[in-house]
Amino acid sequence: MCPSALGLAPPRVQLLQRQDPLLLPPPGAGGRSLPQRPVPEPGRPEVAPRARMPVQSIHCLMPAALRLPPGVPEPLSCQRRHTLPASEFRCLTPQDAVSVFEIEREAFISVSGDCPLRLHEIQHFLTLCPELSLGWFQEGRLVAFIIGSLWDEERLTQESLTLHRPGGHTAHLHVLAVHRTFRQQGKGSILLWRYLCHLGGLPAVRRAVLMCEDPLVPFYERFGFRPVGPCAVTVGLLTFTELECSLQGQAASRRNSC
Ligand SMILES: CC(C)(COP(=O)(O)OP(=O)(O)OC[C@H]1O[C@@H](n2cnc3c(N)ncnc32)[C@H](O)[C@@H]1OP(=O)(O)O)[C@@H](O)C(=O)NCCC(=O)NCCS
């Protein structure tokens, strides 16, 4: 059972707006899965097409700085351009991969020497299935994120760490992380809640699965995840518990509670 069915939503979460348009996939993603392709070689990060645009052509698209005479107020439309949203939730794009990896590097690599997704894997998933990711930005800075992909088997396997199976009905949450300066402030909980609401609005997704180390199991249980046993996946000496959360029948109630 998931939080909406159990009435477990923490009070702060219930303040969230309904059907937040910021939870929609970015333009072009359209909620569709793009064709699957192999993960590039480690050490050779895949470059998103936009990043390949020659420097000159980017340069000529940049607006020249305009100066208004003293005393003339800027038009409102210009003023808005300078102001980043205080808080924004949106699906991630490949251009966010470096910010994601920076948070991962601090959260995981500095602790254990490894992390759930390497830079090229982040770029891979954000290219193939951006609609299964969610980022929380404050004044334009990424403070927390979740990256997921689709999986089509009952249990996770080693392959599920690197593959997106577009025909699958299971959202595999690869990683949830909060920037270290923003931890223990409820942000991870709010983001996970919004993500599950978002998944509830994707017709193809019937359940969510993840693997985590044992101390984090109670954290995920608060959101309706239940342990299904030891995970077949191991990373070095690390072992994990696999958890699942059914989203079936929850879509309508989640849409109404988001
Ligand atoms: C785990 C994480 C996502 C939680 O986000 P957060 O914003 O700090 O968490 P919240 O403030 O919403 O909730 C706090 C709860 O998270 C749980 N929690 C956080 N870090 C934990 C840890 N290292 N071990 C066990 N539980 C932890 C606890 O239940 C805690 O509640 P408590 O303080 O009452 O014990 C965040 O701490 C983080 O990014 N950690 C590093 C990366 C990571 O381990 N990600 C999860 C595995 S993919």
TrEMBL record:
Task: State the residue spans of region: Disordered.
Answer: 21-47
Reactions it catalyzes: a 2-arylethylamine + acetyl-CoA = an N-acetyl-2-arylethylamine + CoA + H(+)
Its GO biological process annotations read: circadian rhythm; melatonin biosynthetic process; response to light stimulus
Gene3D superfamilies reported in the protein's UniProt record: 3.40.630.30
| Pfam families reported in the protein's UniProt record | Acetyltransf_1
Enumerate the GO terms in the molecular function aspect. aralkylamine N-acetyltransferase activity
Keyword annotations from UniProtKB, A to Z:
Acyltransferase, Biological rhythms, Cytoplasm, Melatonin biosynthesis, Phosphoprotein, Transferase
Q: Where does the UniProt annotation locate this protein?
A: Cytoplasm
What's the EC number here? 2.3.1.87
Class of the enzyme per the UniProt entry, highest EC level:
transferase
List, alphabetically, the GO terms of the cellular component aspect. cytoplasm
Q: In which pathway does it act?
A: Aromatic compound metabolism; melatonin biosynthesis; melatonin from serotonin: step 1/2
Q: What is its main location?
A: cytoplasm
Q: Which domain of life is it from?
A: Eukaryota
Q: Where is the N-acetyltransferase domain?
A: 87-248
Which residue stretches, if any, does this entry annotate as coiled coil? none
User: What's this chain's function?
Assistant: Controls the night/day rhythm of melatonin production in the pineal gland. Catalyzes the N-acetylation of serotonin into N-acetylserotonin, the penultimate step in the synthesis of melatonin.
Q: Which family does the record claim for this protein? A: Belongs to the acetyltransferase family. AANAT subfamily.
Could you identify this protein by its name? Serotonin N-acetyltransferase
**Species the sequence originates in:** Phyllostomus discolor
Q: What is the lineage of its organism?
A: Eukaryota, Metazoa, Chordata, Craniata, Vertebrata
